[in-house]
Amino acid sequence: MMDAAQSETLFLEQLGQRVRNMRGLRGMSRKVLAKVSGISERYIAQLESGKGNVSIVLLRRVAQALGTHPEDLIPAGDPVPDWPVLRDLLRQASPVQLAHARDVLSGLGRLGAGARRLPDFNGIALIGLRGAGKSTLGRRLADHIGWRFVELNKEIAQQHGLSIAEIIALYGQEGYRRMELATLRQLLARKELMVLAAGGGIVSEPVSFELLLSSFFTIWLKADPEQHIARVRSQGDLRPLADDQTAMAELHTILTSREPHYARASAVLDTAPLSIDQAAAQLIAMVSPVLCRDACAFGSHQAVL
To answer: Residue 12 — pLDDT band, cuts 50, 70, 90?
Structure first.
């Protein structure tokens, strides 16, 4: 049996790993997390390494800065794989929906005839880190098949009249993620086939990511960390890694945290060894059978491959 000291050491190590993973999912550097939470960067480093004997108050501040709940950082086995999605849906549910869910789970209610309705096909969604080629390849694909190209982050910014950085500064990560989910739902309500480039951090929100996966044929555009940074810098976009000596280490943390979620995509396209023209050709070939099947079933009369 593990003694008390070993158990506490393991707990702190797992807690640190969860904080590091959550920071990676959010795409936040350690420096940014320290600034937003008001906790020193040195202490954040100790916490992530399993050497920080964190208080409840400090843990709450870290969770708030990450736009999550303290319970998400506490090491504990999730009861079911889909628990984060179920939990967030329950938090958003109305009293009537909660009562219905309680009846169904307790065996007192019925699922109903429409409960297993398959989701509509809304098009192709591209996911991955910045620099993976979502905008460039997404536009090429949309132009080729005659669909609208939508960048989710730009749609959010346009609706609110603020840049993404300004939204996060004013409303925090949690506020931005609420806007992201609301904007995604509005796009789906249009019933319009599209090629969607999602923000790299959408995988950090279970409800938003589950909605994306169930509504689109999703493709993870994958590249090496070095290529991500090179492409971002070539575009003149250094956020949030500008003036950061540990940019590569931070990017590795982000990619490691997000990879299991990106891997849930319907398909993967590794753009690392490819030119833009080669990647575009492979992307078009990859979605061809999907368009022939799902877009026709959707009722589209637009040209398909």
So the answer is: confident
